[in-house]
Write a structure and sequence with these properties.
With 196 residues, the protein is α+β, with helices and mostly antiparallel strands. It folds into two domains: 90 residues, no CATH class; 106 residues, no CATH class. Strand 2 and strand 3 form a beta hairpin.
Length: 196
């Protein structure tokens, strides 16, 4: 199996490349291809895209890359990391809370409910703890929660993936939400994993 996840980088006011390629195509192309993460990343001009962070994984390795990250693409050691709309492990309050909650959930034996609960965190930090990403104080306040509730822009879906090695399966649990933050739909699927 292969894994890919992408986040956009929050960078208001930054001049974007002219006619940039789709960042989503990075996920599609990696999942549909056969290259290792290192080969895939080396074959692309990452600076041609608008700002992004990308995680690429195979059963043997997980890589992190971003075209706004001062570190080059790299294989990640086993551990707990956090990724939002800045570079990997940027210490935004919502990210440090979520990373700590994920570490605790993993130590206790992850359950879908525990993982979805950490994604549903609506707490907002004090103003002096907020990052300054150039969007203004009101937007920083709104964006500071892990779960965002708003009509035009907010959390519409939360997903947890759990690898059950004993069962040889990947469990996919997802909840969808309306603009008021109310759950509207739930999905729970187990996918058998092929052994190499």
């Amino acid at each position: 199996g292969r894994f890919a996840a992408l986040t956009n980088v929050r960078e208001p006011g930054r001049t974007q490349p002219p006619d940039p390629p789709s960042r989503g195509a990075l996920v599609r192309d990696f999942l549909g291809g056969g290259q290792s993460p290192a080969e895939f990343l080396a074959a692309r001009d990452l600076d041609a895209y608008a700002g992004f962070n990308l995680l690429l994984g195979t059963p043997d390795e997980l890589w992190s890359a971003g075209n706004r990250d001062p570190q080059p693409p790299r294989a990640l050691e086993p551990g707990v990391y956090g990724l939002s709309n800045a570079v990997l492990d940027e210490p935004w309050p919502k990210l440090t809370r979520a990373r700590a909650a994920l570490g605790a959930a993993l130590a206790a034996g992850p359950t879908p409910d525990a993982l979805l609960a950490l994604l549903a965190d609506r707490r907002r930090p004090a103003d002096d703890e907020l990052p300054d990403t150039g969007v203004g104080l009101e937007a920083e306040r709104f964006l500071s929660a892990a779960f965002l509730v708003s009509e035009p822009y907010g959390t519409r879906c939360s997903t947890a993936l759990i690898h059950d090695a004993a069962a040889g399966a990947l469990r996919f649990v997802e909840r969808s939400f309306d603009p008021a933050g109310q759950a509207t739909e739930a999905r729970d699927h187990a996918f058998p994993l092929e052994t190499p």
